Amino acid sequence: MERLKIAIQKSGRLTEDSQQLFSECSIDIQDGKRQLLAPSANFPIDLLYLRDDDIPQYIADGVADVGILGENVWIESQTELRIAKRLGFAKCRLSLAIPRGEKYEGIDYFRGKRIATTYANIVKKYLAEKGIAAEIHEISGSVEIAPNIGLADAICDIVSTGSTLMSNGLKEVETVMYSEALMLANHNLSPEKEAILQKLLFRIEAVAAAKQNKYILLNAPNDSMDAICNILPGMKSPTILPLAQSGWSSLHSVVNEEIFWELIDQLKALGAQGILVVPIEKMIL
Ligand code: PRP
Ligand code: ZN
Prior knowledge:
Layout: E1 4-9, H1 15-24, E2 37-39, E3 45-50, H2 55-60, E4 66-70, H3 71-77, E5 82-86, E6 92-99, E7 114-117, H4 120-130, E8 135-138, E9 154-159, H5 163-167, E10 170-179, E11 181-185, H6 191-212, E12 213-221, H7 225-231, E13 239-242, E14 248-256, H8 257-269, E15 273-279
Parallel strand pairs: 1-3, 1-4, 7-8, 7-9
Antiparallel strand pairs: 2-3, 4-11, 5-11, 6-9, 6-10, 12-14, 12-15, 13-14
């Protein structure tokens, strides 16, 4: 029986969310502090804990079959992989930033400037498309200190909360790309491995659907039930049960959480009482 090898970041911004993704899918995993390769006991996957920058090449070479990686790191690597799923966490942007005191009037600012970055390929392409010639200094870490120590005039780096820029006296002036965690896969998986991947994606989708939806229970007078069913969208056939108190029923259904909050006043106006909103663990569509 084949097993799917999945590379995840050993330690960094994606590690915890990547591990959580598996545990939400009821897949038991060990963490990678002691070992490089961690097999799951209840799902046919082995996790490979790697440095994020190494993950694209490992997948391209077939050492790993699949990997969880920031879009920015993948694009920078220029490897041919396929996106199996956008995972929606580790959202951030890759931005150009300059010292806070500098006047900024547009992208022309960067002509002839020295820009420090770990994302040289992405920055070069971005500036070339804008017709800007600049000096790109590729450095491997602590990019944000480069302007302060006179190593560069500007930087291009990941911004999430913005606090790193803030504490280094820098301001964000251009967004080069947006990024989120992706599940990336090798183009040539065996049919057996592809089947494991699809099984995993099915579970991930069930978890994601469950997160967006809530199980809702409410009591209301019988003559309001039709109106309530009409305003609660996305319900094919809600469960309606008579209550012991005559003339009243209980309604059970599944609703998108955001829509639910918009409807709460209307539901109350229709006489709904005892409204319970309950999290759903898995939802199979
Ligand atoms: C990135 C980036 C900044 C920080 C920005 O580093 O290099 O240091 O995150 O986040 P903030 O806007 O919330 O302050 P990351 O943690 O990805 O590590 P790495 O770049 O060294 O891999
Ligand atoms: Zn890194």
